[in-house]
Amino acid sequence: MTRAIESCVHCGFCLAACPTYRELGQEMDTPRGRIVLMKQVLEGTLPLADALPHVDRCLGCLACEPACPSGVTYRDLLSPFRALAEKKRRRPFLERVRRWLVSATLPHPARFRLAAWMGKFARELAPLFPKSFRAMLGLIPENVPPRETWPGVTPAIGKRRARVALISGCAQQVLAPDINTATIAVLARNGIEVVIPPAQACCGALAWHVGDIGSAQKFARKNLAAFPGDVDAILTNAAGCGSGMHEYHLILAGTDLADAAEKFRHRVMDAAVFLARLGDLAPFPDSGKATRIAVHDACHLLNAQSVRDEPRALLGAIPRAELIDLPDPHLCCGSAGTYNLDQPEIAASLGAARAHTIIGTHADVVATGNIGCLTQLKLHLAKQGAEIPIRHTMQILRDAYAAV
Predict the structure, then answer these.
(1) What is the Cα–Cα distance from 77 to 81, expressed in whole angstroms?
(2) Using CA atoms, how far apart are residues 301 and 310, in angstroms rounded to an integer?
(3) What b/e readout covers 384-394, taking b as 16+ CB neighbours within 10 angstroms?
(4) Which residues, given as ranges, of the chain have pLDDT below 70?
(5) In what order do the strands lie in the sheet with 390-392?
(6) Yes or no: is domain 2-86 CATH 1.20.120.530?
(7) Predicted confidence (pLDDT) per residue in 5-57, tens digit
(8) Is the pTM of this model over 0.90?
(9) What number of H helices and E strands is found in the chain?
(10) The CATH number fitting domain 284-402, selected from 2.60.290, 3.40.50, 1.10.20, 3.80.10
């Protein structure tokens, strides 16, 4: 944390990139302002309670990092500070209950599926619930997809060119399990054997981003043990998972697995990146139909992992596909892990703005690389009466292969 604080020269380049500054217009709700607040708390010159509202309002989208000329690694400061703060703060009772419900369900697919099913009925009684619970009920989809399962090993089609392990995610398994099905199909079609480790757990990003270091470490330890060493890469198809697993060296810093975490994170790669680097991919058939694809860059792909060109290269290989870049691609849609539960007003404003931008493209479909973005954008497009489908990049690729 010290290095990140000392690197900041308070130049202000991060202000224009920060979504919460655009929303709130306050210096303390900028990366620069939050760094000052966190520094003062760590030095003992500012009470923690004075800094927490502003730190809590940070999306963790990391748009500030690419904008920073000094190379401040804001991620090295935000989540570790939240982990320290969580041990000292005292939350109201209902807030503790809400956070417990989220942490006890979202990272566990079976529990989350049951909770989503029960929540559909509870939504009718939403006005009777405390305000902090209403956002949770409002995000429950009308129809939860049927459960899908995947074999432990899916063989490559044709000559095997690579062997990878795929993290299947937690919320994604419930909200959009077809993303995994599509990912496996696209990988196998291109000569890649896919392993689904049975003992894997949630990546831990949801816990890490809200300062629950104990849960984050538990999940990270399970995954370090679960994923095999004899694969070419560990693949993710959710930007948040990939970003979280790239931070295992922070989550497990100072533990007996610190060195293993450092090695592990360098093996993690987004599925789009792996495919683009592999190259010489199976060609897509020409469906004869032109498709306008608006590309929404998930924050934890673009800002956290510097992944921009690879999804576009894959989508651009589809015959008659026209790719549309959204204005201000660094701006968050408001999902940001559990942010739309923790800060529903700001999240809703950001989601509505992003949906409005998408509608203006007149696209046929929107491509994104993160389940949180997909869920958030789908909700706000529907609220604005738009019927533009939101699809994961891998779903669009899978469907393009089947277009004959």
Answers:
(1) 6
(2) 11
(3) eebebebbbbb
(4) 1-4, 125-128, 130-132, 404
(5) 321-325, 291-295, 365-368, 390-392
(6) no
(7) 778 888 888 999 999 999 999 999 999 999 999 999 999 999 999 999 999 99
(8) yes
(9) 23, 9
(10) 3.40.50
